[in-house]
Amino acid sequence: MTARRLLETLCSMLAALALFAIMWLTLVDVSSRKLISASIPGSLEVTELLMVVVIFAGLPLVSLRGEHVAFDSLDAFMPRGLLRAQRALIDGLCALALAWVGWLMGVKGSQMLEYGDKTQQLGLTLGYFVYLMSALLFVAAAVHVLLMLSPVTHHHPGVDDAAKP
Fold first, then answer.
1. pLDDT value of position 162
2. Are the beta carbons of 24 and 32 closer than 8 angstroms?
3. How far apart are CA 9 and CA 135, in angstroms?
4. DSSP string for residues in the chain
5. What is the distance between the alpha carbons of residues 40 and 32, in angstroms, rounded to a whole number?
6. Residues of the chain whose pLDDT is less than 70?
7. Burial 25-62 (b: 16+ CB within 10 A, else e)
8. Within 13 Å and on the Cβ side, how many CA atoms surround 33?
9. What are phi and psi of 125, to 5 degrees?
10. Model-level pTM?
11. d(CA 138, CA 100)
């Protein structure tokens, strides 16, 4: 299994499991409210934390698949070499920004663990979730570094065009 396939599988499974858990938690919570007039304690907290997992596990996938919002109206007018350089620069800047935010999240996670920050109802330790966010931001940054060094067609349309007559 290639590293790309492994990354896609792990991030997809993590996001899918979290989304599946949100779905079932919501179904059971709403059903129990309607049927027995009782809500699941802490269901909102768990849903919020699972949404964090869905969003941050999806970020490396969005980067890997080139599904970010992009302004490409002028790409047809740019020379291929300049377009490739521009895309490499953008991937480099994205990698730096994601790594910087990942580092900040790691620092925040350490502080939260040191202070003992927990959720209000269930007492779940928040620092571990922030560490997971940090790790997934670093994974997304690594994806952008790899795209910068080894561009692929769906990210860099001009890459394969150079081989054509």
1. 43
2. no
3. 16
4. --HHHHHHHHHHHHHHHHHHHHHHHHHHHHHHHHHHS-PPTTHHHHHHHHHHHHHHHHHHHHHHHT-S----TTGGGS-HHHHHHHHHHHHHHHHHHHHHHHHHHHHHHHHHHHHT-B-TTT--BHHHHHHHHHHHHHHHHHHHHHHHHS--TTT-THHHHTT--
5. 8
6. 1, 151-165
7. beeebeeeeeeeeeebebbebbbebbebbbebbbbbbe
8. 9
9. -75, 120
10. 0.80
11. 9
User: What are the tokens at 116?
Assistant: 């003992």
**Token code pair at residue 159:** 């890459």
CB 54 within 8 A of CB 8: no
CA dihedral 149, 154, 156, 158 (to 10 degrees): 130
C-alpha torsion 80→86→87→90, nearest 10: 180
Would you state the structure tokens that stand for residue 14, as one six-digit string?
């993590």
Among candidate residues 10, 127, 1, the one with its CA nearest the CA of residue 60: 10
CA distance 40 to 25: 8
For the chain, the residue count is 165
Give the distance, in angstroms, between the CA of residue 32 and the centroid of all CA atoms in the same chain: 32
